[in-house]
Structure formats: structure tokens, C-alpha cells
Amino acid sequence: MLRIAVPNKGSLSGPASAMLHEAGYQQRKESKELVLVDPENDVEFFYLRPRDIAIYVSSGKLDIGITGRDLLLDSGANAEEILQLGFARSTFRYATKPGTATGVGDFGGMTIATSYEGIVAKHLADEGIDAAVVHLDGAVETAIQLGVAEVIADVVETGTSLRNAGLEVIGEPIMKSEAVVIRRTGSPADDPKVQQFLRRLQGVLVARSYVMMDYDCRVEHLEQAVALTPGLESPTISPLHHEGWVAVRSMVAAKEAQRIMDDLYDLGARAILTTAIHACRL
Fold first, then answer.
1. For residue 211, what are the β-bridge partners?
2. Which of 34, 44, 56, 187 registers the highest number of CB atoms within 10 A of its CB?
3. Any idea where the Histidine biosynthesis HisG C-terminal domain is (predicted)?
């Protein structure tokens, strides 16, 4: 069986299980379940702390896992990402009290508090900055107020928590993170079970990003309509009972669907419909 690590809690857990379910895999019904066997798909899922997943995968005990890029890099584990999943996106940045520093170059001799000391230590070394790094679990915004550090490094989404703590973001982002599928570095890239798993997840990503669009169009406007809806290969075109009209079916990006419908209508197309795609293979 293919052995896969899945986050058991936090912002990665729910979306990861939802994506696996959309990809046709069984998922646990109770949060206390630690292992789930899916015999129909020849897969065994292990629900683990997100921070531990890269370690388990790098050990070779598990074949692949879903975790955050930030957690992968912070672990220093012998594992690599092989597919970006597009959820749990975040930006990792430095922050401090206004007037403390204007950029990373001013951090020399300061203490930086973070829950991601591996990422921060490497970034400081790459920048040639000699600063101390203090590891704290959980929220680190109060570290400056309590005198534990002059600077913090943490995940920033809206920046509201930092502003409420009287802090401001400094410098460029250290890194951008999202959920990723990982495997042990150097493991076979052509493993058929892994490739099938990746194809299923890629199918979910495409299905979420596209809709199927159908519409009727006069033949004399067909070339202009097809230019608006080229599809992945080319659209399907079928003649209608009324002479001079054809039916067109094509995949279009979901975020552009409304604009394309407007343009098609202005072109004279009618009966313009969109339907969700639940699964696909490209």
C-alpha cells in the first residue's frame, strides 16, 4: 500500500482531507482516528502533526505526505516538494516596533523570536547577519513587549495581529508558503502509485479552476467565439437542427467565466451555460 501522511489538525488538516475526498479517497470520520486504510485505492493514511510529517517522510517510513512548505523547510528534513496544492497560503516576514530597524541589515546583534528557527537561521546566514534566534511555540507577537526579543519572524496573513501588537513589517518576505505534497529526496520519481496519486490531486486542482461552458452560436461568428473559448485542446462543435447554428462546448477558467459569457452574448451567442467540473484527467 501507498503510505501517506496527512495533517491531523490546524489550517492544513481540513482542506487536505477535503481535497483527498474529492480525489476519490476515503477519509476519517472522527478526528481521533490516527490511521485509515483505504483498500479500494490501495492506500493507507496516517494523520500526524503537520510539523512532524517531513521527518516521517524523510525517514522512508512513509512514502509521501501533505504539509506546508514552511514546515518542510524549517524541519531541515531530507524531503522535497513535488506538487503545490494551492491552499493554506501564507507569507513569512520579520516585524518589530516602529523605529527599531529599517531593514534586515539592521538586525545585527539583535535577538529574533520565532517558531521557525530553521528558516530564520538560514535566512540570516544567507544575508550575512549575526543575530541570535530564540525559539518560541505559538504566537510570538508578545515576545517584544516582554523583552524576550527585539524582532519577531512569523507567518503574516492580513497583518492585523501585528498592528494590534504595535508592530510593523520589516523588509521583503522571507518566503511564501502553501500546502505541498512531499517525498523523500532521491526517491524514485516514476513510482506508479505515487504518480497516480499526483494525477488525482492535479485533477482536483484543474476541476476547481475550470468550468465547462456550453453555448449556441451562429456559424458566421464561430471563429470569434472559439477565440474566446479555445479550451485545453480545442472546443467541441456540433451542428444544431436550425441551419446556420452550432453548439459549442469548452473548458474555461472559472475566474474568467462571467466576462467570457458577457463577450459571447455581445457576439450573438445564446443559451450560454456553465457547469462545475467534479473530476478530470488532462
1. 252, 276
2. 56
3. 207-278
